[in-house]
Amino acid sequence: MLAGLASAQGYVDAVRSRGELVISTDATYPPFEVVKGDRIVGFDVDVGTEIARELGVKVRWINQEWAGVLGSLESGKADLVMAGVTITEERKKKGYLYSQPYFLSGQVIVRRKGDSRIEEPGDLKDKTVSVQAETTGQFAVDRIGVPKERQLRFDQIQDGLMDLRNGKSDACVGDLPTVQALIREGYPELELAGPVFVKENLGIVAWKSHPELISHVNRALDRMMVDGRYAAFYKKWFDETLTADIVGELDRQESAGSPVPEVSDSPAPSTSTAEPVRSGSAFTFRWDLLGEALPLLLRGAGLTLQLTFLSLVFGITGGLALALTRISALPILKPLAVAYVEAVRGTPLLMQIYVIYFVLPVIGIGLSPFVAGVLALSLNAAAYSSEIFRAGIESIDAGQMEAARSLGMGHGMAMRWVILPQTVRRVLPPLTNEGVALLKDSSLVSVVALAELMRVGKQLATDAGSPTTIYLTVAVIYLAMTLPLTWLVRRLEARMGTGGRR
Amino acid sequence: MSTLLQIQDLHKRFGDNEVLKGIDLSVGEGEVVALIGASGSGKSTLLRCINGLEEPTRGSILYRGEKVTPQNLNEVRRHIGMVFQRFNLFPHLTALGNVTLAPLKVLGRQRADVENEARELLADVHLSDKANAYPSELSGGQQQRVAIARALALRPSIILFDEPTSALDPELVGEVLEVMRELAGSGMTMIVATHEIGFAREVASHVIFLDGGRILEDGRPAEVLAAPREARTREFLARVLRG
Q: Do B145 and B127 contact (CB within 8 A), yes or no?
């Protein structure tokens, strides 16, 4: 809806007649923006509110995951992004306009207290480092030369710090003010290792077609700098007095053109350097993006398949065992199996993944992201498939078991040779559905920094400039994985169906 | 004639409903016992108790003088075959597969031997040409004959028949009774719950009339079927023969 207004003459007039300025953010980033109670508060929020006031309108905040924040500009869902966004040349090329720098930030290394192995960026080269995915923190770690396999990329910087505290990563790299605030609030076990090693300027972002809006933002920032509002917010949120030095550095950095150490977004940034400014709406399919994105997406799909396959094997085996226990008369195991199935089915998978990865280390069980992902998905699949098996077994006529028993077979033997062969045929369709569901649910393990398909898609969509292209491609890849699965089992059923009809 | 099976003071209760109220019965080798009685008189329950498909509430069952317990039940079952009203063939296996399953898995015998014997058994029930057919491809009468061959595969001493022709279309009853008649002629010990009075009269060595969970009359077919002592027996026979 906002996109339609964008093309009209005078975008700022359009904002004014609408009466509100829409700003997108990811409120997991103290002290810039964080949710307190039912409100979003922080440095960005105060500055943003003042900018709206300067424009003579109200402000409305959209709080969403970082992966979708920048995309909301192109799609017209938001006018501005204020999310502690670092100014980079890469992002400029993708069509984002930046305000003048409004905050000098930088990347710092966090370590467990007293861990003397971690002193400076060079020490990270052979360590496992957690970061927030697709942030300048990740780019800085890329640039240090930490290989991808040893980077744990989380959706939120907090998860990276938790991972470090749990001892799974050796260090975490993130923006100084945010990391500092988070450590102060809840991570007494962690400390900063050394000063800022990459200086960065933060800017307010708009889509490329709205330069008029950016100049209004710049004028508003100037006025706030002069009349002391900016200094007041600075003191309030960073617990430091704004000195002339800081302001001077901010100015100097800006006037120097591009003094901030350039951080490359991707291992091969040269490919996009010569690209012309992109045009077209967010809803055009951009084939040119596919060349870069497709290999990465396919690698993600490979991981998705691995996760799904292993979890299905373990899950179905476990599910069968659970089902047999549930229909048995075993004294302790049976109620345990019932409780397990109900507990798993009654809680969200996302929470189970969190517990397995982030909470188990507290009692000394630290699992790698992949193992934790497979474990969580397997335990989940076991609970659901056990119900499928149970229903399947119970649907077999009681006369079958009686006939088998009357022939001298024990319960187990009758199950193995009479009941289960008939059950398998009946449960294949619902088990396939479970497999398809599992394949899709495997996207949830991205929270433990596994770069499966959905995660890779989100990361690419954050910065690619055309979320539509990326997400459509992701959808097609998912379909390409699920459709053959459905087809295969249909064939299998048809083949088995030629024998043993009832 | 040695006693194969002895039933002593057998009671079976389902909740408040006492289905068997003290059954005493002894079956000798080579005997064919016909169990007759109205639906609900306890015929099926008695057979199912003998085979351990139902646990008796009270009383005992002795096979060759030895009490049947949960511990030796599976062993005893190898010697007591059962044929069900609804056949209960294994739908995922061919006729041959149905007959060979128990000898292969329960006795662990060689496949070649077992299959040869199974083919002979299928020939005995006049189904040589159906060895590779699945149950769904067979008529009810053919399925029941496969079920009889399956029960014979463990070379049991006794076979229990639980109303083996009740689920069949009338024109298919004859072929099953024919096989049972031949089986009785070969000296097999059988206990047959049935409504086929003609079959009982012709084949049984012994007819038992069950009424309300008790044995009301017990004797040779000529006695029980031709000259019943009890009014209940006469009523039942009149009803069955008319129908």
A: yes
Give me the phi and psi of B5, to 5 degrees please.
-135, 135
Report phi then psi at A147, rounded to 5.
-65, 150
Q: Which residue has the tokens 């048809």?
A: A494
Structure tokens at A236: 């309030």
- Paired sense of beta strands B32-36 and B206-211, if any: parallel
Backbone angles phi, psi at B80, to 5 degrees: -125, 105
The answer to whether A405 faces chain B, any CB pair under 8 Å, is yes
Select from B77, B61, B69, B75 the least CA-distant residue to B5: B61
Rounded Cα gap, residues B27 and B31, in angstroms: 7
pTM for the structure as a whole: 0.74
* Residue type present at position B8: Q
* Lowest mean pLDDT, pick from A146-150, A444-448, B154-158: A444-448
**Phi, psi (deg, nearest 5) at residue B226:** -90, -35
Q: Determine the pLDDT at residue B1.
A: 61
| Res A387: pLDDT | 94
Chain A contact present for B101, CB below 8 A: yes
Q: What is the pLDDT of residues B86-121, one digit of tens each?
A: 999 999 999 999 999 999 999 999 999 999 999 999
The ipTM is 0.94
Closest CA to A303 of A477, A161, A138: A477
CB A231 within 8 A of CB A242: yes
Look at B53 and A425 and tell me if their CB atoms are within 8 Å. no
pLDDT band at A283 (very low <50, low <70, confident <90, very high): low
Query: What is the rounded distance in angstroms from the CA atom of residue A275 to the CA atom of residue A264?
Result: 16
Strands A80-81 and A20-25: parallel
**pLDDT tens for residues A33-72?**
988 877 889 999 999 999 999 999 999 998 888 877 888 8
Question: CB contact, 8 Å: B55 with chain A?
Answer: no
Query: A151 — alpha (psi -120 to 50), left (phi > 0) or beta?
Result: beta
End-to-end CA distance of chain B: 37
Helices assigned H by DSSP within A330-419: 333-345, 349-354, 369-394, 398-406, 411-414
Give B28-47 pLDDT, tens digit per residue: 999 999 999 998 899 999 99
Helix, strand, coil percent values for chain A (each to nearest 5): 60, 15, 25
The answer to whether residues B42 and B19 touch, using CB atoms and an 8 Å cutoff, is yes
Chain B neighbors of A402, CB-CB under 8 A: 53, 84, 88
First-residue to last-residue Cα distance in chain A? 59
Q: What is the DSSP secondary structure assignment for residue A262, as one 8-state letter?
A: P
Report the pLDDT averaged over residues B211-236. Answer: 92
Q: What local confidence, expressed as pLDDT, does residue A67 receive?
A: 78
Q: Could you read off the pLDDT of B195-208 as tens digits, one per residue?
A: 999 999 999 999 99
| CB < 8 Å to B77, chain A | 405-408
Chain A interface includes B98 (CB < 8 A):
no
For residue A64, the model assigns a pLDDT of 82
Residue with tokens 């291992």: A267
Of the CA atoms within 13 Å of residue B118, those in its CB half-sphere come to 25
Q: From the CB of residue A271, how many other CB atoms can be counted at a distance below 10 Å? A: 10
- Rounded to 5 degrees, φ, ψ at A40 are -95, 125
What's the one-letter identity of residue A57? V
- CA–CA separation, A151 and A222 (whole Å): 39
A137-151, A366-380, A448-462: the lowest-pLDDT one: A448-462
How many of the other CB atoms lie within 10 Å of CB of B30?
A: 15
- Whether chain B has a CB inside 8 Å of the CB on A497: the answer is no
Min CA distance, A443 vs chain B (Å)?
38
Q: Which residue of B has its CA nearest to A500?
A: B92
